[in-house]
Amino acid sequence: MQERDIRHMAHALRLGRRGQGRCWPNPAVGCIIARGDRVLGRGWTRPGGRPHAETEALAMAGAAARGATAYVTLEPCAHHGRTPPCAEALIEAGIARVVAALEDRDPRVSGRGFALLRAAGVAVTTGVLAEAAARDHAGFFLRQTEGRPFVTLKLAASLDGRIATASGESQWITGPEARRAVHALRARHDAVMVGAGTVRADDPSLTVRDLGTRHQPVRVVVSRGLDLPLSGQLARTAGEVPVWICHGPDADPGLIDAWKGLGARLIPCAIVRGQVDMASVLQGLGAAGLTRVFCEGGGQLAGSLLSAGLVDELISFTAGLALGAEGQPSIGALGLERLVEAPRLDLAEVRQVGDDVLQVWRRTGAG
After folding, report:
1. 48 half-sphere exposure, CB direction, 13 A CA radius
2. Using CA atoms, how far apart are residues 115 and 339, in angstroms rounded to an integer?
3. Which of 315, 316, 341, 355 is the most exposed, having the fewest neighbouring CB atoms within 10 Å of its CB?
4. Which residue in 54, 56, 75, 313 is the catalytic one?
5. CA proximity to 306, closest of 271, 341, 350, 358
6. Residue 28: which residues within 8 A CB-CB, separation 6 or more?
7. pLDDT > 70: what percent of the chain?
8. Residue 367 clears pLDDT 60, i.e. is over it
9. Nearest residue to 317 (alpha-carbon basis) of 154, 151, 153, 152
10. What is the pTM of this model?
């Protein structure tokens, strides 16, 4: 693996991340067109999934693309959709070599893009920074293989794992730097998800703020009976920023009609042991096109996701204060009897954010 290939692929990966949260259900791909060390064109998947990264990079490079190398974070597509296949576009532009991080798992592509390129005489190199690319495209792949989006669970808690006092006071446990980091994380996901208890207690807007962006993720609420305030922030803004509510089959038809009238999307889900089944929720969100979901609690929702083994990444912000046993826990009951049953995650990152500590944990084997 050449050092130049690694450098250009790292650049392409950074570009691809610009599309995260904006291009679902398509993957957030990055592309560089280069000749030697010189970058001739660059692109990333645009909002809504079109244009593709390769198309953008080729347009920037123009005629200079002939004989150059394309660095792409995912196998160029080989199927006809709203636009011609990117593999054909690379061939027509005269690209001499394609360096790709990963093969696409979409059955419409899955090796066909590489086959088209090789048949046209284009040299193909794969596997460059594959591990990093697999993390970036994990949500797109999970939707293909398991029918669900990638789930990031965020916890912002005290040293003793509490998210609020006994009375429910929680603003603010973590500092302004951590809160700004959370808004940046929201912006990189297709949706922000919370439980009904969080909506009733905090009346959150769940929007991205203070980052100079107009992009807003879908706001998802899990509520078995739709017992949510019809005068709250989500209800008032449902016609402006999407609100999706995952509810049980026994929800009041009148409330279903009321939320639909406000502009919300209603997703019926199965019930397991008296609670909305999170596997059913994620299948519903995956069917609707979501690839990356950012869950912000509360404790019961966090516990349900962990118990079901549906947390792919856990991001915790820990503040330097203690709230005691009477405080509200960041994770609800897991029903554990033995330590061996406890969900375990692998530590991937630790750093300081303002006065708080950020930890990133990943599902074992997720990279």
Report:
1. 3
2. 49
3. 341
4. 54
5. 341
6. 16, 17, 18, 19, 20, 21, 22, 44, 45, 136, 137, 140
7. 97
8. no
9. 154
10. 0.92
Helices and strands in the chain, H and E counts: 12, 18
The 10 Å Cβ neighbour count of residue 76 is 30
- Give the closest residue to 226 by CA, choosing from 202, 243, 206, 207: 243
Instruction: Please choose, from the candidates 252, 245, 187, 257, the residue with its C-alpha nearest in 3D space to the C-alpha of residue 221.
Output: 245
Q: Which amino acid is at 279?
A: A
Q: Is 182 in a helix, a strand, or coil?
A: helix
| Residue 140 to residue 107: CA distance in whole angstroms | 12
User: Which residue did the predictor score with more confidence, 297 or 348?
Assistant: 348
Identify the CA nearest to 101 among candidates 138, 132, 67, 143.
132
Smallest Cα–Cα separation from 18: which of 73, 71, 81? 73
Alpha-carbon separation of residue 210 from 215, 234, 279, 358 (angstroms): 12, 19, 33, 20
Take residue 323 and report the two structure tokens written for it: 């709230």
125 DSSP β-pair partners: 99
Has 240 been annotated as catalytic? no
Kindly report the backbone phi and psi dihedral angles of residue 32, in degrees, each rounded to the nearest multiple of 5, phi listed first.
-125, 135
Give the separation between CA 184 and CA 179, rounded to whole angstroms: 9
User: At how many degrees (to 10) do helices 299-307 and 278-287 cross?
Assistant: 90
Give the CA distances from residue 46 to residues 15, 22, 81, 324, in Å, rounded to whole numbers and listed in that order: 11, 7, 15, 47
Of 13, 46, 245, 20, whose CA–CA distance to 139 is shortest?
20
The pLDDT, as a whole number, for residue 106 is: 77
Q: Which two tokens stand for residue 19?
A: 């599309």
Of 49, 41, 92, 45, residue with least CA distance to 73? 45
Could you give phi then psi for residue 82, rounded to 5 degrees? -70, -20
- pLDDT tens profile 59-91: 999 999 999 999 999 999 887 666 678 999 999
